[in-house]
Amino acid sequence: MFLTRPWTLGKIFGIPLRIDPSWLLIFLLLVYQLAFIVFPYELGVRPRRGIPFDLIALAVAASLLLFASVLAHELAHALMARTRGVSVLSITLFIFGGIAQIGDEPDSPATEFLIAIVGPLISFVIAIFAGAVWIWLQAFDALGVFYQTPLPRLALYVSVVAFYLAQTNLLLAVFNLLPGFPLDGGRVLRALVWAVLKDPKRATYWGMLSGRGLALLMAGVGVFFILRGEYDGGWALLMAWFLWRAAGDAYHGMLARELLKQVTVGELMRSPASRVSEALSLRELAEQFSSWLRAPALAVDLQGVAVGMIGIAQLEKFNRAHWETTRVRQAMLPLSPDNTVRSTAPALQALQVMTEREREALAVVQGEQALGIIGREELARYLQTKGE
Ligand SMILES: [Zn+2]
Hints:
- The structure is a single chain.
- The chain has a 4-stranded mixed β-sheet with strand order 1-2-3-4, covered by helices on one side. It has a 4-stranded mixed β-sheet with strand order 5-6-7-8. A 3-stranded mixed β-sheet has the order 9-10-11.
- With about 400 residues, the chain is of the alpha/beta class.
- The chain is built from 13 helices and 11 strands.
- About 60% of the residues lie in helices and about 15% in strands.
- The protein is globular, with a radius of gyration of 27 Å.
- The protein folds into 2 domains: about 5-175, no CATH class; about 265-385, CBS-domain, CATH 3.10.580.
């Protein structure tokens, strides 16, 4: 399920908002749990025959509000990043919350600290607000304000949802503040180490250790509970495993991005790149790709000027029966900012454009001229030679 691509919901403040398909399953489980277990218990209603539509509606509302809370948390990270001049690529919401993917490393400990801390801060604010609503309603109820008015049922409903949101947002804030990288708390820790040691690389290393240390601690807690026969400990083990991997991935990702900043696209590109005439038929192109020509290739016009790029993916969009009559010019991707990068740009920028636009390779340009092609392969090979 984790392998499926996230769905793009749209844009919020200009930032692409994506949702992992696994979220839908969690949403349904959550609605079920709230409508049939949690809310009936809190409202003190006895099991009824038939479908409890009111409770289901309440559960859907509570789940959507929780979703909005997670979104607010990630949006806080994203907007703070943007305010501090760090580009934001996307926000993805998935099974355990969300990720605001930023395009670059923060340039200073202060920036990293601010980006990390606002998420949990917003969760705290929401928890306090929801908690206040719950307390007011409880107090009004105790004072008999709702007595014999048509309001009590609605007030009761609002109060259980408010209580639920206060609990979950508090949990969200506290969990994210655990000092293990790449959780928010781990990022705060990394920023502090960075400020003290003045060395972002060593701070990243210590951050990674903090993540792994926390993962081991969680695993220990999980095993402890399982040995006592409390199998909920399995959740702690699962989380420990996620955190262990995330800490390593984040560490290596950071080192890789650091390395890709120090080299230009021009130094790593494939040059000379494969070139084909835009007048070639797709059948001939397919033959060349399967014998000697490396995909993707630059498509050039009669004057030899590159006008587009064509790879296996564009070829496969056309039915084989039409390959004879279709020209490269009809199938190619015309060169645009979506599939090009300047040769003088840092290689990191190529990686960012590829990630953002979901491309495997880009045309490398200088002024109006296309010089070559750079793909994930070139970046990976370079990182390999550097031991990353
Ligand atoms: Zn966060």
